[in-house]
Amino acid sequence: xxxxxxxxxxxxxxxxxxxxxxxxxxxxxxxxxxxxxxxxxxxxxxxxxxxxxxxxxxxxxxxxxxxxxxxxxxxxxxxxxxxxxxxxxxxxxxxxxxxxxxxxxxxxxxxxxxxxxxxxxxxxxxxxxxxxxxxxxxxxxxxxxxxxxxxxxxxxxxxxxxxxxxxxxxxxxxxxxxxxxxxxxxxxxxxxxxxxxxxxxxxxxxxxxxxxxxxxxxxxxxxxxxxxxxxxxxxxxxxxxxxxxxxxxxxxxxxxxxxxxxxxxxxxxxxxxxxxxxxxxxxxxxxxxxxxxxxxxxxxxxxxxxx
Length: 307
Fold this sequence. Notes:
Layout: H1 2-38, H2 46-74, E1 78-79, H3 80-113, H4 118-121, H5 124-152, E2 161-162, H6 166-169, H7 173-207, H8 212-232, H9 234-248, H10 253-266, H11 271-277, H12 281-291
Antiparallel strand pairs: 1-2
Helix pairs in contact: 1-2, 1-12, 2-3, 2-5, 3-5, 3-7, 3-8, 5-7, 7-8, 9-10
């Protein structure tokens, strides 16, 4: 009975911490979303559109991640159909992040290295097309996982229940091959994009006789894209980290698994406002106004938004 009580208290505290962090991070990200939609002048700037898409995607991904984590404790056995939909959207939103980072790096590269072509290449319409393609490309692997289940299991499996965790549903060799091949391809393309754009912007900064400040900011932004991508990749090496620490500290299995979950799934979602929102002086100015309630009486003028 004492052990049962300890288990309940442990599960309660983990869920409380997870939900608490989720609410705090969602609130922080939500402020930037409100600032964006409250001021239509942001709608015409491709950099802000891609940024706010990243923030909204992080909010969705965090909500799904926290929901799945809480369900493991509160509803251990979940219907496979419901679980499949949750995992479908969770996998898609997770795949959106690195692709969106690559798109933001390319936009900065065009703005600095091809400024005369930027208005033609980075239009609002093309930006929304890019966002649609990001969702399409990210959803294909998630749908493939479900198709593999259909190919290997009877349709009746979707009326059964299980623990809603990717490895409990997507546990065949085909799923493993799909994960390794697709994720390697995606992340390789994203890393090559970040490296290419960084060195191109670096060259432009060295050759430029003017606008050194913008080039330096773009270079630093791309470096931060790389940092965020590294943190996003923690999800791919979590199993290795767990194996290493569990071998050293076998008595702290629950704590280790919970800590790596927070590190790979929850904490990185806080980086978007910290890396981009607070670094952008104009946006942060109006975020600060919102926090002091003055944004309700203030509008951004078009010439106040940096390109």
